[in-house]
Structures are given as C-alpha cells and as structure tokens.
Amino acid sequence: MQATTGEPTRATEAEGPPDPRRWWALGALVVGLLVVGLDTTIINVAMPTMSDRLGASTGDLQWIADSYIVVFAALMLPAGLIGDRYGRRRFLLVGLAVFGVGSVVGALVGSVEGVIAARALMGVGGAFIMPLSLSILPSLFPAAERGRAISIWAASTALGIPLGPILGGLLLEHFWWGSVFLINIPMVGLALLVCGVLLPVSRSAEAPRVDVAVTVLVTAALTTLIFAVIEAPEWGWGDARVLTLFGAAVLLAASVAVRESRARRPMIDFGLFRDRNFRWATISALVPSFAMSGVLFLVPQRFQGVDGNSALGTGLRLLPLLGGLFVTALASDKVAPRFGYKVVIPSGMFVLGCGLLLGATGSADDGYGWTACWLALTGMGLGLSLVPAMDAVMAGVAPERAGMGSALVQTLRQVAGALGVAILGSVLASTYVDRIDTGGRPAPVADTARESIGGAAKVAGRGADPALLDSARDAFVHGMDLSLLICGVTTLVLAAAVAVFLPRRAATTPAPTGGAGGPGGDGAGGPGESDHDREGVLHP
C-alpha cells in the first residue's frame, strides 16, 4: 500500500530542463555534509578539555565519541529508506534540524551524560543527512552533470574530517569547550534555509519499507558490543557481565542475519557478501576506518595530556596525518588504474601498518619530529588504501544494487570507526590503569589519577607531585604503544590476506560512478554469479 505524504512524487531522475539553481542547492548540501564530517573529529581535540572540566574518565570519553558513531551507523540505512519513501527533502530538513538541536544541547549541558545524549541526538540527524543528501542528487542534476556533482558530494564528506581538529583547536583556544558544538548552529541554519528553498521534492514509493524490528536489533547489537568493549577494562575481560554482553551482541547480530535472509525485500542485503570482490574490498575499506578513528582518539590525548600542548597546537600537530592522507588520496586516482586494486590497496594497507608500528615505538620523551613522521606515513597509508577500497567495493555491484551496496559499506565503516575507538581505547585504559603507580597517595587522588591522563595531570599539578605525573605519562604512552602495535599487526595481516584474496578482475558492465562513497562503481556483477565468472580489468 502506497503511503500518502502530502508531497507530489517526483521521479528519481531529473526531468525536463535542469534547475538553474542546482549548483547553489549543491552548495547548501555541502555545508550540511561539512557539519557531519566536522563532528566526526572536532570532538577529539576537545576531549582532554572535557576530561578536565567535566571529570570524564577514559571510558566516558569513549562513549562521547562512540555515541554519535553508533547511532549514526545503526540508523543510516533506515533513515535513507524513510527519506526515499516519504520525501527526501522533507527528511533531509528533519535531519538538519535534529542535528542543530543536538548541537545546542551539547553546548549547554554541563555533565558527561548530557554530552553523550547530545552526541547521540546529533548522530540521529547525521544518519538522515548523509544518505539523503546523496540520493537527492539524481533529481537535481541531469546525467551529464551527475558525475561531477557526486564527486563534489564525496569530497565534501571527507573535507570536514581534517578541518575538525584544526577548527576545534581554534575554538578551544578562545572559548569554552561547548563552542565545538555551537559552531554547528550557523552552518545548520544556512543549510536549512537554502535546502528548504532550492531542493526539489522527490521520493520513491517503490523503496523498501523500514523494518523496525531489524533497526532495533541492529541498534541493540551495536550498543551492546560497544558497551562490553568499553566497560571491559574496568570490570575485567573475563567478567561474567562482559562475557554475557558479548554473547548477547552475537545473538542479536545473528537474529538480524536470520530475519533478513528470510525477507522478500531485505533492508540489509547480506547476499552481497557472497561476491568475493565485494567481501574483500569491504574488509579493505573497514581496516583504514578502524585505524583512523582509533588514532584520532588516542593521539590528541597524547599531545595534550602527555606533551602539554594546547588544543590549537594539538589540531595543528595532526596536519601531517591529514596531509599524508590527502596527498595519497589524490594520487590513488591515477595509481589505481595503472596498477590495479589488487596491488594498490594492499600496498596502502602495508604503508598504514608500518606507520602504526613506528608509532608503537614511542616514549613519553619523544620529540614531535618523530611523531610527525609516523603520523605522515600513517596518513599516506590511509589515503592509498581507503579511497581505492571504496571504489573497488562498488566495482562489482550490479547497478540495481548499487545504492544498497554503498549504504551497507558506509554503515559498516561507521561500525568499524566505533570499534576503533572502543577497542583501542579499552586497550589504552587497561594498560594505563595497570601501569600507573599511585602508591602512597590518598584514595581520592589515586582514583582520579587512574581515571585518565587528564585527571592525573590535574591532581599531580595541584599536589606538586611530579613523580605521579611522570608515572601517568609513561603509563599512557605504554598503553598507546600497545594499542598501535595491535592495530599495526592486524593491518599487516589483513593486507596480506587482501593481496591474496581480492580478485584481479571484475565485471565490465558499467554502473553509476560514485567515487568514495557515491552510489555506484564501474562494474557490476549479477547477484548470482560466482567469484570465477567475472571478466574485465578491475579499475576505478
């Protein structure tokens, strides 16, 4: 039964002469996307300040980071389907408004719990903004201009990520920590105004219905898994509560798989993973997402808590990572067609793994020069692996399944990012608590010092206790080294696996070009063909 929305239905494809205001409308979409990208990373440079002002522990900081990503990941697929079915413009505006409300709440609350709730609310808004800003482009641009529009969309989704730490540092240099949320308001307001005026009304009555049960199960599975990983350092990895949570997460995920395998029109098409190209290209896209989120969670705390840099100094010191990423991301567009995904993607993962392993050799007394070197190498590996991997994912997806494939991989990338923060942050927290020496200190001082490096710096400074601060700095760096070691070794192992199992060839049937997160790739394979049926060079 077709839902009635009160909006006229417009075809997904642009009809008639193109709207002369379409590029202005795209500019408004770019502003909204920048906000989503900014808030993925701007919070990282604010975390040491929040730890100090709000008394947040390492676990609290993990929840502040992950509450946004978990909700974003869990709701991206259903949010996109809701917009497709009931009006893309309408629910894009809803997403922008919700994001703005969450930003106001985040700026004004004065507790850890309030910030976590605000970030989760912003994740709801982001889950609508990201997919609907893409799906509305075909109704805005004719086919001849669509590739360029999608390229701009893809670039704007990435641009906010490097701007986040720098802008956050500038704000924290002059304003209170809540300013990292309040900066969203003028950008959201502008996007709301222009999008409301310029965007066309479009929807698709044939879009699959949202499966509420699957949405609830996915959200519960992700939340349970992240909760178990974050709380494990405090409760113990072998604690019955932690093991129960892990078991519950597995059962919830299995329930999703069983339900979707029986659905006539599944909301999550797990059948895509039967294709070897899609399976291994997806794995190669998740590893850089996991590593980047973990590094951006760990390193700002090192710069501020261990090295004593300001928030602005922290943002600027992340530039080698971001510079390396952009250089190789741009170069990959030329390198991948020449050498192929099977060479370029594992090579990028190898560079990424080497950068992480170099970072794992650090000490509390390292100068910035060494840190800048391994950050630059890590960034180069990220750019050389992630961008071609996202293109490779879509290269073997049939045109009629391109939207599902893109949305599924984007969702999994968000999950990988959340796990990067949760797992690497938990390794850091466990090691930090085990190694910090608080012997002989009063219980309140010892408890505060064990919570985070920021707490240790605070009580050590107040009590003129340089030995406690030195112990905390060494414990933090040791925990960070172990986190980077685990991440680096895992990356190298998976790089070898991708080099072996990623196919050299994909189907030659063209699909809509989507770039690194767009709605399509270059090749398509029918849903029923085997890994050995593909022909044609795999190329971006």
TrEMBL record:
InterPro entries from the xrefs? MFS, MFS_dom, MFS_trans_sf
- PROSITE patterns hit by this protein: MFS
| Superkingdom field | Bacteria
Gene Ontology molecular function, alphabetical: transmembrane transporter activity
Record keywords: Nucleus included?
no
Q: Name one GO cellular component term.
A: plasma membrane
Q: How does it sit in the membrane?
A: Multi-pass membrane protein
* Annotated region (Disordered), positions in chain: 508-540
Q: Which residues form the signal peptide?
A: none
| Protein name per Swiss-Prot or TrEMBL | MFS transporter
